Design the sequence.
């Protein structure tokens, strides 16, 4: 009887739409996002956590590439950001690394979070109005590499520094 | 025996939010949750109770159900270097879980159990409010009782009377919750499950000499590798991921009061230590993953004179860790045995 109950519960679980994780797939899915690797983007402007305005084109006059990392100041984000600091930033001095705070509601909140998390040695974009979040369909750990021609050379969820490293090596 | 000594205690599961999100909260990925994810109670004596990976039936009962409500409050996190960081200003991160568990005896020494949770993530983060309710991960478990007679005693009468109760168990976690690897997720605040199949091997050794009880539970968790072709509803280049092996130890010490109306009250203090190795992505070690956590807990359990109803309350707090959120868990629940 108990086994029957278990099977019934499993069937219910499947019917409730959980099959996606119960039967994981490695089939490539069609990427329908407007901005993806290979896309040419417009010159974006944004506000930094120190309240200064900045643009991509301005940053790219002095750097070979801009790397955006979407952070919500969480443990995983901190782990990723610490690897940006220890492994990527020292090796690619010609690249501008920016953290995009897409969760804080104001520039002041962003500045507080940046200071509390100990990342004052990086520039942080205060995306208070979700402009970059919406433009890139960004979420936690979304990473974007933009070259001098405003072409997205990489867009994905940060896994390890290897993916970003390989892209920057080829620039 | 009866389930009187059953008490709640800190679960060893990862936050379903694994590291905030991974479960952000709900991760470590943390990767966060655990997460997970999360089973309910823990044995405090040879008389049976729950366990972090499923409830345990008392020796001479056939069926048990257990309902509990957990409130997990996130209060900052520890970095990979073990440094504590506060959450951003005006942030309140709470995960509530309604756990339903069922245990069924197969014969004198074997029993099965299952657990499912309804998870609510209620977050205010840097001014933004978010709330989502969904199914969590499901667990199916089996326990083998490596003893035939009750080992709880009131008085030590030679070495033979010191024989402990020993349980061996296995628990399979099914990824029925919302993980980062589906298109059913808008943000990391939505995560209610780990997204991986995991098998935990458990052993419990416990001894009660009334009114005192001591127990230890060891757990080894193996997470099965899985393909991933989307994260946070974003299409990605497919890859395979396997979370690291998980090891945990829990020590419990309990004291039982026998009340005048023949009911019983048990107080249990616990110390849990959890470690998860680094994950592997396409076979390569992910150095941003892995976690450690130490948790202290205190629990009360009250059972009626007949010993078929148990009311439980517990509080636990993580006191140190690496790469994982700091949380406080308040849990209340009720069990009934037949």
Sequence:
């Amino acid at each position: 009887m108990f086994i029957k109950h278990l099977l019934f519960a499993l069937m219910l679980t499947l019917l409730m739409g959980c099959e996606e994780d119960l039967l994981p797939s490695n089939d490539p899915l069609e990427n329908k996002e407007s901005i993806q690797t290979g896309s040419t983007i417009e010159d974006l402007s944004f506000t930094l956590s120190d309240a200064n305005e900045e643009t991509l084109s301005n940053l790219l006059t002095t750097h070979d590439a801009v790397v955006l990392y979407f952070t919500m100041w969480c443990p995983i984000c901190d782990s990723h950001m610490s690897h940006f600091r220890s492994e990527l930033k020292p090796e690619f001095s010609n690249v501008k690394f920016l953290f995009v705070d897409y969760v804080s509601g104001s520039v002041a909140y962003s500045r507080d979070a940046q200071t509390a998390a100990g990342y004052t040695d990086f520039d942080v974009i205060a995306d208070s109005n979700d402009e970059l979040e919406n433009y890139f369909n960004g979420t936690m750990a979304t990473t974007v590499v933009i070259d001098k021609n405003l072409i997205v050379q990489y867009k994905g969820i940060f896994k390890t520094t290897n993916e970003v490293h390989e892209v920057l090596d080829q620039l | 025996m009866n389930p009187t000594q059953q008490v709640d205690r800190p679960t060893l599961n990862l936050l379903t939010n694994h590291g905030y999100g991974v479960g952000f909260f709900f991760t470590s990925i943390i990767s966060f949750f655990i997460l997970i994810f999360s089973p309910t109670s823990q044995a405090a004596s040879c008389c049976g109770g729950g366990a972090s990976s499923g409830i345990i039936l008392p020796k001479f009962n056939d069926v048990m159900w257990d309902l509990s409500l957990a409130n997990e409050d996130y209060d900052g996190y520890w970095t990979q270097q073990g440094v504590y960081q506060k959450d951003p200003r005006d942030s309140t991160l709470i995960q509530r879980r309604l756990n339903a568990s069922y245990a069924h005896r197969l014969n004198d020494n074997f029993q099965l159990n299952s657990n499912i949770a309804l998870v609510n993530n209620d977050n205010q983060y840097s001014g933004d409010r978010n709330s989502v309710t969904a199914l969590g991960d499901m667990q199916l478990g089996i326990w083998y009782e490596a003893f035939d007679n009750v080992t709880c005693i009131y008085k030590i009468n030679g070495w033979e009377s010191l024989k402990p109760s020993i349980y061996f168990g296995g628990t399979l976690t099914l990824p029925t919750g919302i993980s980062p690897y589906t298109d059913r997720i808008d943000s990391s605040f939505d995560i209610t499950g780990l997204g991986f199949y995991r098998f935990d091997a458990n052993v419990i050794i416990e001894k009660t000499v009334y009114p005192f009880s001591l127990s230890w539970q060891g757990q080894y968790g193996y997470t099965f590798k899985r393909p991933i072709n989307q994260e946070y509803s974003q299409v990605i280049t497919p890859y395979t991921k396997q979370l690291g092996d998980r090891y945990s130890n829990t020590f419990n010490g309990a004291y039982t009061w026998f009340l005048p109306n023949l009911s019983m009250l048990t107080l249990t203090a616990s110390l849990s230590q959890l470690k998860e190795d680094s994950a592997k992505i396409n076979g390569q070690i992910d150095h941003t993953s892995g976690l450690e956590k130490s948790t202290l807990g205190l629990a009360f359990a009250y059972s009626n004179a007949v010993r078929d109803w148990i009311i439980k309350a517990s509080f636990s707090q993580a006191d140190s860790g690496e790469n994982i959120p700091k949380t406080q868990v308040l849990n209340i629940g009720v069990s009934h045995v037949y």
User: Anything to note?
Assistant: Strands of chain A lie at 45-47, 53-55, 65-71, 95-101, 123-126, 142-147, 152-157. Residues 2-22 of chain A form the longest helix (21 residues). Chain A touches chain B through 54 residues (CB under 8 Å). Chain A has one domain: 35-169.
